[in-house]
Design goal:
This protein has 468 residues and is mainly beta. Helix content is 0%, strand content 40%. Strand 16 and strand 17 form a beta hairpin. Bound molecules: beta-L-arabinofuranose. This is Xylosidase.
Length: 468
């Protein structure tokens, strides 16, 4: 991930256990806004769904991961979540020093094994360790006293991160992991803390980048994972692809994209059935103040086709929450809109009518579009007196023809003499079928501008642009 995404390299001296924070979180949107969370792993035990997550602590505008511990969230309805606090920390691994990245908990013989990637302070960078506890909430202790997988493990991944562990019906457990296009797999011994046999390179997992998640349904093995090829996402952004197999070690057959790119560059899937409903759990940059290093876990319902393939997940609980507009005073309603270009048959005023689109192709309330212009265009709001603004929410128009989701965007304001980027801007999201919320330090201004850069060969459009 780091080589593709500039400025990501983070080596953080990380110590200390941060203990419990918030009470139950509200239904839609991120599972919490009290902290930033990432890299969810889902586990159902009885009537409870647990999410074991990473914890992003980068400062606003930070350009590296700052991750020191992992939290455990729990819910009885997959809607209201309780943060049970930081239940595992870098400091639990005496041989590790930083980078509490994406892990997963697997139950076995009444115990819960938490596999996590950490910077092991030894040769190379990331290792995979394992902690054990008596409940999904722990307490957890280092189960091995050293790495389970490191750069010294024969045939290990170019980056040993993102373990997913799966136990088959016959009791055999498997671990998959890796990044930098290097997916690896191995059997685990019944003690769950030693590999059983060689590390293999599974075949058929098209465009694998990182973040594998393995599960089984109706006798078929499924492997979801983050890819970042041009067929599914913008440069530097992940999408979630998946493959199926009839054997837990493959070979795998690629089946397509199950989750489009989100507002964060990275993404990390967990797919689970809970009380008869399947869910895709993932992260975005969409929470207030969020960004690529200040991510938030969210989840959406996942549905199946009769042939066992997964339907692409509709991101309804992402930025904006439930496909609904974010709350707050929308200054767009009182603004005068202008643009660098609008197609004569389109309606610039549609971006400020307050309508709630049902999807990016919904032009029932009109749409702004700039076909057949390519490159960078802008839309702008003006007010007779200054407005205090700290967020915008953009619902992109995508007609699946000449107008597509943009490659990138940028929010700017008039500082009295020129247009400049709004300060402290979180990522300017380009996801379809949702409100992309960009937060920034409050500005007091009479003019706000959204610069939109198209994908190669396409024009761009907007259904709603809110200024809050
Ligand atoms: O959170 C750090 C890393 O970013 C994870 O290990 C990857 O899966 C990606 O989400």
């Amino acid at each position: 991930m780091r080589r593709l995404r500039s400025g990501f390299l983070a080596v953080i001296a990380a110590l200390g256990l941060v203990l419990a924070s918030a009470g139950p979180a509200p239904a839609a949107g991120p599972i919490t806004t009290a902290i930033y969370t990432a890299d969810p792993a889902a586990l159902v035990v009885g009537d409870t769904m647990y999410l074991h997550t990473g914890h992003d602590e980068a400062a606003p505008g930070g350009t590296n991961f700052v991750m020191r511990d992992w939290h455990v969230f729990s819910s009885g309805d997959a809607t209201t979540w309780t943060d049970n606090g930081a239940k595992l920390s870098i400091s639990n691994f005496g041989w590790a020093g930083a980078d509490a990245w994406a892990g997963e908990v697997e139950p076995r013989n009444g115990k819960y094994y938490w596999y996590v990637p950490v910077n092991g302070n030894g040769a190379g960078w990331m290792d995979i360790g394992v902690a054990v506890g008596d409940t999904p909430l722990g307490p957890f202790t280092d189960a091995k006293g050293g790495p389970l997988i490191s750069d010294g493990t024969p045939n290990s991944s170019p980056l040993n991160i993102d373990p997913t562990v799966f136990t088959d019906d016959d009791g055999q457990a498997y671990i998959y992991w890796g990044s930098y296009y290097g997916l690896r797999a191995a059997k685990l011994k019944p003690d769950m803390v030693n590999l059983d046999g060689p590390v293999v390179t599974p075949a058929g997992v098209t465009n694998f980048w990182e973040a594998p998640w393995m599960f089984k349904r109706n006798g078929t093995y499924y492997l979801a994972y983050a890819a970042n090829d041009s067929g599914c996402s913008q440069p530097g952004y992940a999408c979630i692809r998946y493959a199926t197999a009839s054997n837990p070690l493959g070979p795998w057959t690629h089946r397509g994209v199950v989750l489009d790119q989100v507002t964060s560059t990275t993404n990390h899937p967990a797919i689970v059935e809970f009380k008869g409903q399947w869910y895709m759990v993932y992260h975005t940059a969409g929470a207030p103040g969020g960004g690529n290093f200040r991510r938030s876990v969210t989840l959406d319902k996942l549905y199946w086709n009769a042939d066992g393939t997964m339907r692409k997940v509709v991101q309804t609980t992402g930025p904006g929450g439930g496909g609904q507009p974010p709350t707050g005073t929308n200054h767009a309603l009182t603004a005068t809109a202008s643009t660098s270009y609008v197609s004569p048959w389109e309606t610039l005023g549609a971006i400020k009518d307050g309508a709630v689109p049902t999807g990016s192709a919904d032009r029932s309330h009109g749409a702004y579009g700039n076909w057949d212009h390519r490159g960078t265009e802008w839309i702008e709001y003006q007010w007779p007196t200054a407005r205090n603004i700290s967020r915008v929410a953009t619902y992109w128009f995508d007609d699946d023809q000449g107008i597509d989701l943009p490659a990138s965007c940028q929010v700017q304001y008039w500082n009295g003499g020129s247009y400049v980027d709004v300060p402290g801007q979180s990522s300017c999201g380009v996801a379809g079928d949702t409100y992309n919320v960009t937060t920034f330090n409050q500005v007091s201004t009479t003019r706000l501008r959204l610069k939109i850069t198209s994908r190669s060969g396409y024009s761009t459009g907007v259904l709603e642009w809110m200024a809050l």
